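To whoever picks this up:

The nightly regression suite flagged Malectin-like domain-containing protein as changed. Nothing in the input moved, so I suspect the structure step. Input below, exactly as stored in the fixture:
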Amino acid sequence: YATLRAFPSDGAKHCYALPVATRARYLLRATFLYAGFDGDDAFPEFDLYLGATRWSPVVVYDGARLVTREAVVLAQSSTVSVCLSNATTGRPFISTLELRPLNGSLYRTDAEARAFLALAARINFGAPSPDPVRYPDDPYDRIWESDMVRRANYLVDAAPGTVNVSTDKPVFVATSERPPEKVMQTAVVGTLGELTYRLNLNGFPGDGWAFSYFAEIEESVVPETRKFKLFIPGLPDVSKATVDVGENAPGKLRLYQPGYYNVSLPFVLSFAFRKTNDSSRGPILNAFEIYKYVEIEPGSPDALAMASLASRYTSLGDWANEGGDPCWPSPWSWVRCSSEPQLRVVSINLSGKNLTGGVPPELVALSFLAEIRLDDNMLTGPIPDLAASSNLSIIHFENNQLTGSVPSYLSSLPKLTELYLQNNKLSGYIPKALKSRGIIFKSVFFPSYTILISILFQQRLFK
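Regenerated output under the current build:
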């Protein structure tokens, strides 16, 4: 964490586009270590976005403490965009951005096409040190935070009689979410019959994914039982199942993973595991994970077409690599969007960007366009059919190398007020329908054919 990248507080979004395999599941992690890089008295506060979806706020309270945001994401396309935006204080910045492929069965949910999982807590109980467990102990590089790490309102109110236990024997973990063996070799036990904790869950209240990980790792000389129930104040529906580690696992040194794929949890979570009357041992807890479901915002319906358009020019400058949704939470620098009733691209301004090749065919798919400015480039080929963009009022194609004739559909665009086509290689006659609308033309006529030099079509007289 010796370096970071900071961005201006300019109201724009700043994105990274990560290549992924479509329909594959990934662990995505962003970290932020401020360390007073800008010498400002105000700690930074800004938003983190996944595409058009607000993933989480990033609020720095302590410049020396690492802020981490982690999510499990099912890739919907060939890229995943992570964006920083909406700085309220300080400058947006990022220290690391990590992408880890997951086993195809891990964290599969019925809602993953419409929501991703944002991590609220992943804790290794009974840890021997404050150090986290991650790769290579966890092949997926999940970070299992030690329960020895203490901070305000996090893992407080531990019950008296809570002790650490551990084993150096192998624990079978090759099932369910596959927590690392090193995590499952430690645990806490409620020797007085109860385990209790309280912690704040980042991003909650809301609907979440919550699972506990148990393994019987204590040795016993005579047969003993370990049965206990989960209790959460105010949530009676999740406070009734009995955990019998020896029976459910089944057997010692094997993973048992009970939990809920969809459960409503509060911001302040208090919970207890309490032994049943027929249990000879107190409850055990090796680890748990809690994620919040974050509903995926669809963003602009024009996003795919715009991403395709921008991909044609990625070598021409940063403007073609801005990433994220073209409209949300802020539009690309060369784009304007409407917000009602949907986020739609209404204006594209690529004047003087050294564009080559034909006029981008993606323009045809942008049916809400009102303004196109592609002048002062090196575009070739014909003017495409933009008849579906009935809102077009301004078209600037001048100072290119376009060929072919002036399309007749231009006369049917009801809102057209500016049409600039001069200094191209267009040929043929000006459509009569355009003339009938009282358009002022400038052209040069030759005996055998007409070469169109310019058309200036505006609602004012040119002299």
